[in-house]
């Protein structure tokens, strides 16, 4: 593998686009389930296509991750921190992939279409089934909460590397050379 100090520019763009989309999605999801006003339908109409966009972006991101060189973590990091960094990244990838699929399956089980606009409707990925809906609905919530917690830990670690350690980890994803 080639030694590199920065992630591939396409991977950096997808990373930051996904960061914004996931944070927006988490807040839209909370607002969506917290209101019975007319705003609910607007939030749902944003939530579904944004979830599909995140699903497509995570697939692109995984492809980029496996086909481009990635910078190594600093040798100064203890082994347990390197292991936690790798584990948390794979947990993020798993949840970013699973969450939209769970949502899609949940809506399919409930018999609700996923409309993306302009008459584009995704096919259901499972048959209508109230028992499955009863499982998938809380699972969608729990994965969202776990994703939010993991994203916050990821953000805290990124800020630690950027502001305290200044070891190049943060700049490898921003592309900004450290002074």
Provide a quick synopsis of the model.
The protein has 179 residues and is mostly helical. It is built from five helices and two strands, in the order H-H-H-E-E-H-H.
Describe it.
This is Cytochrome b/b6 domain-containing protein. It is found in: Cell membrane. Its cofactor is heme b. This protein is mostly helical. Helices cover about 70% and strands about 5% of the residues. The chain contains 5 helices and 2 strands, in the order H-H-H-E-E-H-H. A two-stranded antiparallel sheet has the order 1-2. A hairpin with a 2-residue loop joins strand 1 and strand 2. Helix 2 (about 40-65) packs across helix 3 (about 80-110) and helix 3 (about 80-110) packs antiparallel against helix 4. The radius of gyration is 18 Å and the shape is elongated.
Task: For this entry, give a set of tags.
single chain, 179 residues, mainly alpha, two-stranded antiparallel sheet, 5 helices, elongated, Cyt_b561_bac/Ni-Hgenase, transmembrane helix, transport
| Main sheet specs | 2 strands, antiparallel
Over the alpha carbons, how many angstroms does the gyration radius reach? 18 Å
The strand line-up of the biggest sheet is 1-2
**H/E series:** HHHEEHH
Shape: elongated
Quickly give the structural class: mainly alpha
Averaged pLDDT, please? 93
Distance between the termini: 26 Å
Strand content: under 5%
Number of alpha- plus pi-helical segments:
5
Q: Roughly how much helix do the residues carry, as a percent range?
A: over 70%
User: How many strand segments?
Assistant: 2
Which regions have little confidence, pLDDT < 50, spanning 5+ residues? Answer: none
